[in-house]
TrEMBL record:
Alphabetized Gene3D superfamilies for the sequence: Alpha-helical ferredoxin
Keywords, comma-separated and alphabetical: 4Fe-4S, Electron transport, Iron, Iron-sulfur, Metal-binding, Transport
MF term (GO), any: metal ion binding
Organism encoding this protein: Neomoorella humiferrea
Pfam families according to UniProt: CCG (PF02754), Fer4_8 (PF13183)
Chain ranges of the 4Fe-4S ferredoxin-type domain: 44-73
Name the UniProt record assigns to this protein: Succinate dehydrogenase/fumarate reductase iron-sulfur subunit
């Protein structure tokens, strides 16, 4: 593959198909993205962000990848947005068609298309830039809309599409775990709880009519089982009517990778989530510790599925755990978590979901020594696992994640003096696992539910 951007790769030659003419297809797809009737998610902020940018540089001063790269121009948020903005001006505005050089418009070439395809996957779409922009320009939305255009011409990372949304829709989860294997895992987790905690917890599966359907990121069962077990212990201690579900009853994976790159894929997955919840007749769909799943099911779904077609509430497990602790429904002892603990605000749960105080109240109730990372809340620095990055490693991409976003988070963790980093998002857990290993940090990460389970007074 010819060098068109930097030394890392998300998209292979097979995915990019550089031997084929793609410019005209891209322009047709982009034209459709600019029409409100065809772009129901972010049309207004997208078009406003294309039309307006003062080039003031405020966004760059908060962009993790730009700062950690040593301020390389190619990672500047405006540089990335301008790759699409120049095309917009050239082909979709009158001044750009008549006087392209005067308005900064440029022709799209096959080489520029390759470079843009890679560049939009250097942004985790954390939206930190949008939060500080004086005129509310959202470079993250531009990156996401560019990904949609590329997906429309069949250019998308295999991790997100082929091995993500498509596998999830076909098999019920993106890990490809069949129903019998899932039930075996649940039985193992029940035994593990009994062996380690000394009491039995029955984990219900496929129970029709339960009040709560708890849906985890399917990867948690394989990689972060402590989170799954912790959540089961919390639900059991609260004495609520709840269930998990297996692939036999529909999609049993909270993830929706379509959030990161495609409205078409997003829509198919969210409809499958809705049908699963309706089939089981639950009152509340509880999203496990997964940031983008919370955004998809709590907020974006509302713009797609009418209220009468989704007869259930959606809540994050953090909201319920916070509520139950404050009500005294579950009792916790912070002395059971004596180590210093800090918390990383997931971009999707925090900046995009508004869940700032819930995890902090939980951790202060369950942990003896809670410390803040600085900065935090609205200005939390993205860990580098967002928008699908946590599952992307080919093309030396893991090194990119570690040497940019990961470097900043490692510095934050060291400064906190904490020995445990509490996380409420699966993508964050995947990224922090690598950060801790890469920088040999003397810390471990833990899910919120795991820490609550540790502190339970039964």
């Amino acid at each position: 593959m010819r060098k068109v951007f930097d030394d890392y790769r998300v998209l292979s030659d097979e995915t990019l198909r550089p031997e084929e003419p793609r410019v005209e297809k891209f322009l047709q797809a982009m034209k459709k993205s600019l029409q409100q009737r065809d772009n129901w998610t972010f049309w207004l902020p997208y078009t406003l962000s294309l039309d307006t940018c003062m080039k003031c540089g405020t966004c760059a001063e908060v962009c993790p990848v730009y700062l950690a790269s040593g301020r390389k121009e190619i990672y500047h948020p405006v540089y990335r947005a301008d790759m699409l903005r120049k095309i917009y001006k050239r082909y979709f505005t009158l001044p750009g068609r008549l006087f392209p050089k005067l308005v900064g418009a440029e022709d799209l070439t096959e080489e520029k298309l390759d470079a843009m395809a890679e560049n939009i996957y250097r942004c985790t779409i954390c939206r930190r830039c949008a939060y500080v922009c004086p005129v509310a320009i959202d470079n993250g939305v531009i990156a996401r809309e560019a990904r949609k255009i590329f997906d429309a011409i069949d250019i998308a990372p295999d991790e997100l599409k082929k091995n993500g949304t498509q596998k999830q829709l076909k098999l019920g989860n993106a890990t490809g775990t069949p129903a019998n294997a899932f039930l075996d895992m649940i039985e193992f987790l029940e035994e593990e709880i009994e062996d380690t905690k000394g009491y039995k917890v029955k984990i219900p599966v496929d129970k029709v009519g339960a009040e709560y359907l708890l849906m985890h990121n399917a990867g948690d069962y394989l990689a972060f089982a402590e989170t799954v077990m912790g959540a089961a212990e919390v639900m059991d201690a609260a004495g609520v009517d709840w269930t998990l579900n297996s692939p036999a009853t529909g999609v049993n994976d909270a993830v929706n990778y379509g959030v990161f790159f495609s409205d078409v894929e997003f829509t198919a997955v969210v409809k499958a989530h809705v049908e699963t919840a309706k089939k089981l007749g639950v009152k509340t769909l509880v999203v496990g510790e997964c940031g983008h799943a919370f955004e998809a099911l709590k907020y974006l779904m509302q713009r797609l599925i009418p209220p009468e077609e989704r007869p259930f509430e959606v809540k994050s497990i953090l909201e319920l755990e916070d509520e139950w602790i404050r009500e005294g429904r579950i009792k916790v002892d912070p002395e059971k978590n004596p180590e210093p603990v800090t918390y990383h605000d997931s971009c999707k749960l925090g900046r995009l979901g508004g869940l700032y105080e819930e995890p902090r109240r939980i951790l202060k109730a369950c942990c003896k020594d809670f410390r803040e990372l600085e900065p935090n809340r609205e200005m939390s620095i993205c860990c580098g696992g967002g928008s699908g990055f946590a599952i992307m490693e080919k093309g030396d991409f893991l090194k990119f994640r570690m040497e940019t976003y990961g470097k900043l988070k490692a510095e934050q963790i060291k400064a906190s003096g904490a020995s445990i980093v509490a996380l409420a998002c699966s993508n964050c857990k995947g990224q922090f696992r690598e950060i801790i290993n890469y920088y040999k940090l003397p810390v471990r990460f833990a899910g919120i539910s795991e820490l609550i389970a540790n502190a339970l007074v039964r």
